[in-house]
Write a structure and sequence with these properties.
By secondary structure, the chain is mostly helical. It has a single domain, classed as Growth Hormone, Chain: A. About 70% of the residues lie in helices and about 0% in strands. Helix 2 packs antiparallel against helix 8.
Length: about 350
């Protein structure tokens, strides 16, 4: 009845988020097809590479307007839901002990966010993801061309990368949803194939160009760690101001990472791009180390709360929901439990 509205609980349901955002894989495939087609427009007065940027940029701009217009920022503003459906949805959202967003700024929550080591751990993961994304998204075609393919062929060879991302991200989201407390493990697992691919790019002989291309395909799985870190951030940070500051910090470091990633690949190092490979290798290794430490941190916090409170009763669960609606942070809410 309210299947569309249920995406409002996307922050605490990894499979919904992964399905919703794995459309990035579809977009990658469509972008590759569109780029391949526009790359053949050699008789146009506009150079093919400029035409690709203009067409894809215009499509993104048009879709952003539609998205802003159709997607409200809270359940109570969803025009496509009836009052009854809104009430059901708000009750569903309440079960994550976070309530509905409060627009008032609370200074102490901002300070708490900046002093929370867990928030910084996820932000550093965002930095690593940004470095990887900035490197692979900007230089995948150049890397593939370095193995002996033309520009048009390199564009077409991005199709499998999108398909791999689509399958892996949805699979990871399903595991995190159906198997309790595996979100950190899933994020760790997302990093294993691309890390192996980076090692392959460094070690596989240049004569084995298809093996090298296969190593570039798995680099687009970076969408998996990005999505899962969003899930963990939204599920484990409570309080509207604290969550807003935490999300802002994550995106700031993610954007910085994209800038760094775009500047560690040098043309004179083609086709191996040693500095880029080292940067990506360091980023994946750092992400994997941090997520394990993050899981230990959350597990320790949960155990401390259980020592103080004891076993959660139904009354305590209801109290936690009420405290969530009051805008309490995860530190303030005794009944809040961190998702692992």
């Amino acid at each position: 009845m309210i299947i569309n509205g249920l995406f409002y609980k996307i922050e605490d349901q990894p499979i919904r988020m992964c399905i919703f955002l794995s459309f990035n894989g579809v977009a990658t495939m469509l972008g590759a097809l569109l780029g391949f087609a526009l790359g053949h427009a050699t008789e146009s007065s506009i150079k093919p590479w400029k035409l690709i940027f203009m067409v894809i940029g215009l499509l993104n701009f048009a879709w952003s307007i539609v998205f802003i217009w159709l997607c409200p920022d809270s359940p109570d503003k969803a025009k496509f839901l009836t009052e009854e459906e809104k009430a059901i949805l708000i009750k569903e959202v309440a079960s994550n002990n976070m309530g509905i967003k409060d627009k008032s700024f609370k200074k102490y929550q901002a300070i708490e966010a900046l002093s929370d080591i867990g928030v910084w751990m996820l932000a550093l993961i965002g930095l690593g993801c940004g470095v990887i994304n900035g490197g692979t998204s900007n230089f995948q075609s150049a890397i593939i061309k370095g193995f002996g393919f033309t520009g048009i062929q390199a564009t077409a060879l991005q199709l499998p990368a999108g398909a791999i991302e689509l399958v892996v991200v949805i699979t990871g989201g399903a595991i995190a949803f159906f198997v309790k407390n595996t979100r950190c493990y899933v994020l760790f697992g997302f990093c294993i194939p691309p890390l192996g691919g980076i090692v392959g790019l460094h070690l596989i002989p240049l004569e084995n160009k298809w093996g090298l291309v296969g190593c570039t395909f798995v680099q687009f799985i970076v969408g998996g760690p990005v999505i899962m870190s969003w899930v963990l951030l939204n599920a484990n940070v409570s309080g509207a101001t604290k969550k807003t500051v935490s999300s802002g910090l994550w995106f700031m470091l993610y954007a910085s990472g994209n800038i760094i990633g775009a500047n560690i690949f040098y043309a004179y190092q083609a086709p191996r791009y040693y500095s880029g490979v080292i940067g990506l290798l360091s980023s994946y290794s750092g992400i994997m180390a941090i997520i394990i430490a993050y899981r230990f941190l959350l597990s320790w916090r949960n155990k401390n709360k259980e020592k103080i409170q004891g076993e959660m009763t139904e009354e305590m669960k209801q109290r936690a929901i009420i405290d969530g609606f009051k805008g309490f942070t995860d530190f303030e809410n005794p009944g809040f439990r961190y998702s692992l």
